[in-house]
Write a structure and sequence with these properties.
- The protein is α/β, with parallel strands linked by helices and 632 residues long.
- The protein folds into four domains: 14-203, no CATH class; 245-329, Helix Hairpins; 335-489, Histidine kinase-like ATPase, C-terminal domain (Heat Shock Protein 90); 505-631, Rossmann fold.
- It has 17 helices and twelve strands.
- A hairpin with a 3-residue loop joins strand 6 and strand 7 (481-489).
- The radius of gyration is 34 Å and the shape is extended.
Length: 632
């Protein structure tokens, strides 16, 4: 910009510069105080390093840190509450930057073998450039001053105390590089900020001009309208319609902007929820390549990778489910469900996590096992309870979580099963209690970083409850807890035997006598299966397409088990399974797919598969499914 000094980054117009400084101070004072207190506390806390790494100089360093630097920093902080602070605040921050840096430099010069102080100077540089709201010119000058103090100090200490600084050239190179990089970064940040300020002011000025012009135009229109009002009733009517349309457009614009804001926040959260576990996976996988790590660290890295993988899978599953819901593609698959069994399985799944947080987890069924069978979609009901309990555990620090159901009759005399999940967590503000069920929105959209997760669980739960013909609501009080409740129709069917598996004859399958066919077109997945099934089966056959799977079954009647990938070139797994079932009804077929959406299991079973497992493959779960098929 022509009105901006390219070196000092000051506006040539003093009025604009003064207004910018005023706005920058008002916008930065709160952030500055928080960051300055943080820097001061950390500066003081790092005195512990002096005790453990420089005992011979500890008293000297203690005096520098606690009787010189920290009091000066504290004094500047308290001065920030004085109304005249805005006049000299950049100078005072530069002084604090130099004093704090000089303190660390003195400690380094006195004890050059202590590696902690080399890093300490880097922290000082970063704090000065980015953390305590120094402007570009002040930060750059202060950084240069610290570099001069460091080099002059080395010369003085070498001359007076005959101290040899082995890392002088290397340290200077890093510190100069750090200052150059930080200065360039801060220069561009301030330049963009000043450009934005200038453009905003120009925009306001133009808007005022337009407003003034509009006012004059409206006056002329009113005068002209008054003169011809008796001859222009149709025109008045048209103008009225236009005003109504403009209001409707304005309302639509506001709704669109709100929707865009929420979706932007959602996408940012999704980016965080995907990148964070990916970073954990890739980072600790690289650490596992170190041949010198011990067994305990290796197991810890593996646990972190597994936890990050579970979190990534959960996020991707939520995204896929909400996408399917948004597209109107969810299908309800009604089957007989044992609610008591579902509650017990849910309790078993979450009990370990609840215990690890010191929470009491309670399940409260109200019917006998025999009477707890209902007609519903087992997957949807399970997902609703899972999402509600997962939320309860996430937002509860202490106390208990209870979940269960009871039978009620509504005003239309319909019998309903009302479920509840009650916790003693942080609660939800009254004015946000309906918003938590909205898609792309959480109870506090600005604070989603406090708790990990996609933020889609309640939206998914609400959609599934409505798909099952029920409704969901909540009662909550901030700081006390929340209770989520939902209803579904209480529909039952009579079966003589609720657990038919008890009456089935069992035959034990000896896996090392079996022949398995793996239909998979991805080579890396075949390598994984080869490791999983090492020394397990008598013979393993690999094919890469659905047609090859059919031909392999025709040519090898001894095949006992097929792991059928769903997405393959030339013919998918569903079609291949249907073709195989035309000539072989006995072979066990387990579908394995990366789709992992609600309804995919039902499609696989309908195509003729005996069971279904989603990718990424869980080795323990896969063997459980194989053994279950060959035992029943």
């Amino acid at each position: 910009m022509e009105n901006l000094n390219k070196i000092t980054l000051k506006f040539l117009d003093e009025k604009i510069e003064k207004k910018f400084k005023q706005e920058y101070f008002d916008k930065s004072i709160g952030i500055f105080r928080i960051s300055f207190v943080t820097v001061t506390i950390l500066y003081a806390a790092f005195g512990y390093i002096d005790l453990i790494s420089a005992k011979e100089y500890y008293q000297l360093f203690f005096n520098i840190r606690y009787f010189i630097v920290v009091p000066i920093l504290a004094a500047v902080f308290f001065l920030s509450f004085n109304r005249n602070f805005r006049k000299v605040w950049q100078e005072l921050l530069s002084l604090c930057y130099i004093i704090g840096g000089t303190g660390i430099i003195f400690m380094l010069l006195k004890n050059p073998e202590n590696i902690y102080y080399y890093g300490g100077i880097f922290l000082i540089f970063n704090a000065g450039y980015f953390f305590i709201k120094l402007r570009f010119l002040a930060a750059t000058i202060s950084g240069i001053v610290l570099l001069l103090i460091y080099n002059i100090g080395m010369i003085a200490f070498h001359t007076l105390y005959h101290i040899h600084f082995d890392y002088a050239i290397i340290a200077n190179t890093f510190y100069i590089s750090a200052n150059i990089i930080n200065a360039i970064a801060l220069y561009n940040i301030e330049l963009l900020e000043r450009k934005d300020y200038y453009q905003r002011n120009q925009l306001v000025a133009k808007q005022n001009e337009i407003y003034s012009a509009n006012q004059n135009l409206e006056l002329k229109i009113k005068t002209r309208t008054k003169q011809i009002s008796e001859h222009n009733s149709k025109l008045i009517e048209e103008i009225s319609k236009r005003e109504v349309m403009e209001k409707a457009l304005l309302l639509a614009k506001e709704k669109a902007e709100e929707s865009n804001r929420l979706k932007t926040a959602f996408l940012n959260n999704m980016s965080h929820e995907i990148r964070t576990p990916l970073n954990g996976i890739t980072g600790f996988l690289s650490l596992l390549q170190d041949p010198d790590i011990d067994a305990e660290d290796k197991q810890q890295y593996i646990d972190i990778i597994n936890k990050s993988s579970d979190r990534l899978i959960s996020t991707v599953t939520d995204i896929m489910e909400i996408s399917k819901i948004e597209s109107g593609l969810i299908e309800v698959s009604i089957q007989e469900v044992s609610v008591n069994k579902l509650l017990q399985e849910t309790y078993n799944f979450f009990s370990l996590e609840a215990n690890s947080k010191g929470l009491a987890l309670k399940q409260l069924p109200s019917l006998s096992d025999e009477d707890s069978y209902i007609l519903a979609d087992n997957y949807m009901l399970n997902r609703i309870l899972t999402n509600l309990i997962k939320n309860a555990i996430k937002f509860t620090k202490k106390g208990s979580i209870s979940f269960g159901y009871h039978i009620i009759t509504n005003s239309e005399s319909d019998v309903l099963m009302q479920f509840f999940v009650e916790d003693t967590g942080i609660g939800i503000p009254r004015n946000r209690q309906q918003a938590v069920f909205n898609r792309f929105e959480q109870a506090d959209i600005e604070d989603t970083r406090v708790f990990e997760g996609s933020g889609l669980g309640l939206a998914i739960a609400k959609s599934y409850v409505e798909a099952l013909g029920g409704e969901i609501w909540l009662k909550s009080e901030e700081g006390i807890g929340a209770e989520f409740m939902f209803t579904i129709p209480y529909k039952t069917s009579i079966k003589e035997n609720k657990n038919p598996q008890k009456d089935l004859p069992k035959r034990q399958g000896d896996l090392n006598k079996l022949t398995i066919l793996i239909a998979e077109d991805e080579e890396i997945n075949n390598q994984l299966f080869e490791l999983i099934f090492r020394n397990t089966f008598k013979h393993i056959i690999y094919v890469g397409t659905g047609q090859q799977a059919i031909e392999a079954c025709q040519n090898n009647p001894a095949i006992n088990l097929i792991l059928m990938d769903i997405k393959m070139p030339d013919m998918n797994g569903y079609t291949a399974t249907k073709e195989i079932r035309k000539f072989n009804q006995d072979v066990i077929i387990i579908a394995q797919t990366a789709f992992g959406l609600e309804g995919d299991r039902e499609k696989a079973i309908a195509a003729g598969c005996n069971d279904y497992i989603s990718k990424p493959i869980d080795k323990k779960l896969l063997f459980e499914k194989i053994k279950l098929q060959f035992n029943n």
